[in-house]
Amino acid sequence: MKIPLSKTLFVFLFLILAVNFLAAQKPLTPVQDPDRPTHLRPDGAGGTIEEAGPTGQAVVTGNGINYNGGPVLKGSPVPIYVIWYGNWNGTGSNTMATVSTVETWLKTVGGTPYELINSTYGDNTGNVSGNLTLGGAIFDTGSQGTRLTNTRLSNIVNRSFSNGLPKDTNGVYVVITASNVSEQGFCTQFCGFHTAQTLGGTDIKWAFVGNTDRCQSACSIQATGPNSPATGVGGADGTINVLTHETEEAITDPDLNAWFDSSGNEDADKCNFNFGATTTCTTSNGCTSAGASAGAKFNQTFGGRNYMMQQEWENRNGGACVQHL
Amino acid sequence: MTGAFTQPLSLILIMAVIAATAQEPVKPKLTPTIVTATRQAALFSGLEKQMLQAVQKKDKAGLEALLADDFEIAMPNADPLAGEDWEDAVLAGDFNLKSFVVRQLSVADMGDAAVVKFDRIQQATFKGRNESGEFFVVDLWKKSGDSWKLANRYVSKVSTIPETGKTAVKPTGKD
Fold this sequence. Notes:
By secondary structure, chain A is α/β, with parallel strands linked by helices. Helix content of chain A is 22%, strand content 23%. Chain A has a single domain (74-322), classed as Collagenase (Catalytic Domain). In chain A, the strands form 8 sheets. A 5-stranded mixed sheet of chain A has the order 7-4-9-12-11, sandwiched between helices. Chain A has a two-stranded antiparallel sheet with strand order 1-2. A two-stranded antiparallel sheet of chain A has the order 3-13. In chain A, helix 2 (96-108) packs parallel to helix 5 (235-252). By secondary structure, chain B is of the alpha+beta class. Chain B has a domain at 39-160: Nuclear Transport Factor 2, Chain: A (Roll). Helices cover 31% and strands 41% of the residues of chain B. Chain B contains 4 helices and 8 strands; from the N terminus they run H-E-H-H-E-E-H-E-E-E-E-E. In chain B, strands 2, 3, 4, 5, 6, 7 and 8 form a 7-stranded mixed sheet that branches. The relative contact order of chain B is 0.16. Chains A and B meet through helix 1, helix 3, strand 11, helix 4 and helix 5 of A and helix 1, strand 1, helix 2 and strand 4 of B.
């Protein structure tokens, strides 16, 4: 019996559309339980123990921080892309002077004995290089408004790919906000954060750092820093301190499944606001006059500048907060 | 001729719309964030855990060191509980705090006072009854010399967790 052409065509098109529809149901990104690192399992006594993960020259454990199987960023250097968000032509520390100070830090911290602390971390294919640099920077004066949420921050990062920054899975994108911008949880819960997200099909590591002058008591160790242009204007130095925290962690735990301890603390968390030995600014040791006049403290010097930066957890010698490798 | 194609064509169009809908990009889901706690969040996180550990260990002196003399606790649908009565209840032998997790802690710094809010997930029993669950806690801390004392607590139960006999999963910090 001959089947009418219309019915044949209908069945054929139906099959095509059905296959198309079913294929579209596949998740775009793999789902991972964010509360269960892949290499921890219950020990039957209410705790967790680390399973033997991939080992190699680059994975050294037993120093107070655990390897949970995920990758680290091994670029030499790791590019840090900055999105200056909000009004950076304002007053106080919301100026191009702060932009210049922070970008100078990014261009000079790579390869220093401080940054090399990170080279004690690795994955099963190699170590973190201890080298990072400014990969690029753009300004976004307020595309998502001045009251940010995590979703709006994500939009800011996503938007940057069509506004001058490359889409680079091996880099870290940092949104640094001026004091005229608020973000949910900033100043009450956190000073910054980092995360990983699939944007446009690419695994993007990004972070948020707010100008610490918005809440000095919460996010700064001192109101005036070694690079302050005026007394009480410590935003550049305070922001650099939070920035080093986020970049250290985005490099050693980029996808949130590499290096952290049993309490969930990453390498910089273990030394949060822990600065170690410091030196007091004077008029002759490289600080600004405001820094000297306020007796600001610093504990790092490189690239011709002084900085006050938290210590980092060294993944060797039993583990400890240190100022340099 | 036209009528013979209308019905199958309509069905094809409907299927096309359904298939097109399924093809729209799924909005990227934001993964958890790892935060850098503020100085106050780090401080009060330590104090809150210190208090919970004192309850766990039945450490009366350790607990009293953190409580203001006029400490009071308020819960929904109940009269406020005086600090002494609350202390007696949590330090009693028939209250067992097996484990706890403090999450999403934030601090509103008022200078000599601080409002601290957080989620507390606990595994506990009281007189053999399951007291495990998630609680939303708002604490008012007051400066006392160089230290802080808990003056008021407002706590409400968000949900009950079945008693499993196992302690809560250790926090991963991925809040």
